[in-house]
Write a structure and sequence with these properties.
The complex is a heterodimer of chains A (332) and B (287). Chain A has 332 residues and is an alpha/beta fold. Chain A is 30% helix and 21% strand. Chain A has an eight-stranded mixed sheet. In chain A, strands 2-1-4-5 form a four-stranded antiparallel sheet, with helices on one face. In chain A, strand 7, helix 7 and strand 8 form a beta-alpha-beta unit. Classes of the chains: A alpha/beta (332), B mainly alpha (287).
């Protein structure tokens, strides 16, 4: 197996651990909020890895810290062999040519004051990706790539629909000619008919440009369509990851199973809605000790309340963090 | 019945004009009024019938009449000419004493909001210190240190006025900084200056302009107050505050010396307030 393009090792992000002067003087110590907790995963060249979790599970924080839009607290982000966390500002700026991002809210991801020509032209000019004379031609080319007409050039964001804005966000990221793109819930804010189009576009771009993608979503049914591999996050930890088939056919973690049951299926024979996960997610400020999921898990026993489960490989490429993964495939 | 028909028939471009007028009456009246004042102050040299500084001791304290529409003062100077010339000075001071605090406050507020942390703390504690003093107390205090005069007044009004702008801009920057297009700008590897001037400032500047429009009124009132107290513009220059101050001794015998410059202040204040509110309304609708 070749070296992965992206190799994330033990990445953590804590908020509020650096206490203020007053708090330090008074000796009071507040527990940090652990948004991302010792996360490791790899993404191979050309692969689409999807990260799924409820809101607040830390998936957006994780995605943003990969680009160091949020500084990770500890851990390594090896991209093509280089640890991004060790780069200084200049080296990181150069690295951004290769690592880009697509944002969640298409309405706020484009500067409302700039036209398409200005927004994308700025990328090409600042990084000298194309000589000035070829910039307009390149913008048109990028617009065509994401399926927008050349007439879009001189319009400002307010003249586009959500789906079109998301395409513009993708075009802006592509202008950098990156190897790797973090797509942070790119379809959760556009309406259903546009979701499929955007996902098809991403798949198409992958095959045409050889892109590698980290696709973040809060919904398993969305990622089934386009993922090669899937990871499920719960309260800052990746509780299970594996290939698409492993995750959708033989999921071992009770949380993944619950999410699968929650996914709507167009099956008129299935009546009623089962409660997918019992109870509310616990407060991330004081996560339950041991396995974070034990408060809502039908399999929970004493060990789940005391010891965090270690990652265990149950099949090649299929990693589960659950003490009872051997029994969970038979649902009660 | 016939009335209803007449009403529906009149639903043409005229009624649209009427709707615009009803909606933006303040803006239109304010802009027109300010336009007239601005033009007449700019062309004061041509319009005014007399030299504003020319004494004419045979014609002192004349009441308003054809030769002197606003009357003359105790030195026989033409009050109409003085009011026109004063308009230029007062409007210029008003504009500059809003421009300088706006620039200073916007720059510091943007830096504080954008960089955060220790920079933010230091700048905002300075802002707190400056806003702790009542406006006029601070202005008078600074002028007392620097000595009266036009330059002292510019400095004092700038130092006393910038902190509101810093607060306003910082708050807006804190919001816009979290917008995804600013994150995108960082992800695209843009330098701080580009992010600040191209992606943040253009999107936070609107509320400060609205505030500045209303601030001009306050600054012009402060300017005339200071000159009235003898702390701002110095005689014999024509300035509304000075004119009122000079006329106050004659208020019972020559009412025009105090009243007509006072009316000019009221008119400018009214025009700027209407204009400010109108522009604020317009920008809110656009946003």
């Amino acid at each position: 197996m070749p070296d992965p393009l992206l190799d994330v090792r033990h990445l953590s992000k804590h908020y509020g651990s650096a206490t203020g002067l007053l708090k330090r003087l008074s000796g009071a110590k507040s527990a940090p909020l652990i948004a991302v907790d010792d996360v490791s995963f790899t993404i191979a060249q050309g692969e689409i890895f999807s990260l799924v979790g409820e809101s607040g599970s830390g998936k957006t924080t994780l995605g943003r810290s990969l680009l160091r839009l949020i500084e990770p607290t500890t851990g390594e982000i090896r991209f093509d062999g280089t640890d991004l966390c060790t780069l200084d500002a200049t080296a990181m700026r150069a690295m951004r040519r290769q690592v880009q991002m697509i944002f969640q809210d298409p309405y706020s991801s484009l500067n409302p004051r700039l036209t398409v020509r200005q927004t994308i032209g700025e990328v090409l000019r600042v990084h000298a990706i194309r000589p000035v004379a070829q910039i307009d031609a390149r913008i048109t080319e990028l617009l065509a790539l994401v399926g927008l007409p050349a007439e879009a050039l001189d319009r400002t964001p307010r003249n586009f629909s959500g789906g079109q804005l998301q395409r513009l966000g993708i075009a802006r990221a592509l202008a950098m000619e990156p190897l790797f793109i973090v797509a942070d819930e790119p379809v959760s804010a556009v309406d259903v008919s546009m979701q499929a189009q955007i996902m098809n576009l991403l798949l198409d771009l992958r095959s045409r440009l050889g892109l590698t993608l980290l696709f973040i979503a809060h919904d398993l049914s969305v990622v089934r369509y386009l993922s090669d591999r899937v990871g499920v996050m719960y309260m800052g930890r990746i509780v299970e990851s594996g290939t698409r088939n492993q995750m959708f056919e033989v999921a071992r973690h009770p949380y993944t199973q619950a999410l699968l049951r929650a996914a709507p299926r167009p099956d008129p024979a299935r009546k009623g809605t089962e409660a997918a996960v019992r109870g509310e997610p616990p407060s991330p400020l004081s996560p339950p000790p041991g396995c974070h999921f034990h408060t809502r898990c039908p399999f929970a026993t004493a060990i789940c309340r005391s010891t965090p489960p270690p990652p265990e490989t149950v099949a090649p490429g299929h990693v589960v963090r659950c003490h009872h993964h051997a029994q969970t495939h038979v649902m009660p | 019945m016939t009335e209803a028909v007449a009403l529906s028939l009149s639903n043409g471009p005229d009624s649209r004009k009427a709707a615009v007028w009803r909606k933006h009456t303040g803006l239109i009246v304010g802009a027109t009024l300010l336009g007239v004042i601005l033009l007449s102050s700019l062309f004061a040299g041509f319009i005014s019938p007399h030299d504003p500084l020319q004494h004419d001791l045979r014609n002192t304290l004349q009441p308003p009449r054809w030769a002197h529409p606003f009357g003359t003062d105790n030195f026989g100077r033409d009050i109409f000419s003085r009011v026109l010339h004063a308009a230029k000075l007062d409007l210029m001071i008003g504009f500059l004493c809003v421009l300088f605090p706006w620039m200073l406050g916007t720059a510091l507020g943007a830096i504080a909001g954008y960089f955060g942390g220790a920079v933010d703390t230091v700048i905002m504690r300075v802002v707190d210190t400056f806003s702790a003093f009542p406006f006029l107390v601070m202005v008078i205090g600074i002028i007392a240190i620097l000595g009266p005069g036009l330059m002292s007044m510019y400095i004092a009004l700038t130092l006393a006025g910038w902190s509101m702008y810093a607060r306003l801009v910082r708050a807006e920057v804190l919001v816009v900084k979290k917008a995804e297009y600013v994150l995108a700008a960082r992800a695209l590897g843009y330098l701080h200056g580009r992010i600040m001037f191209r992606h943040i400032l253009p999107n936070v500047i609107t509320p400060t302009i609205i505030f500045a429009m209303t601030d001009i009124v306050l600054v012009i009132l402060s300017t005339t107050s200071l000159s009235f107290l003898g702390l701002g513009v110095q005689p014999p220059m024509a300035e509304w505050g000075i004119m009122i101050s000079e006329g106050k001794g004659f208020i019972l015998t020559a009412w025009w010396m105090v009243t007509l410059p006072g009316l000019a202040i009221v008119l400018v204040g009214l025009a700027l307030s209407l204009l400010g509110d109108g522009i604020a309304k317009l920008l809110r609708e656009r946003a």
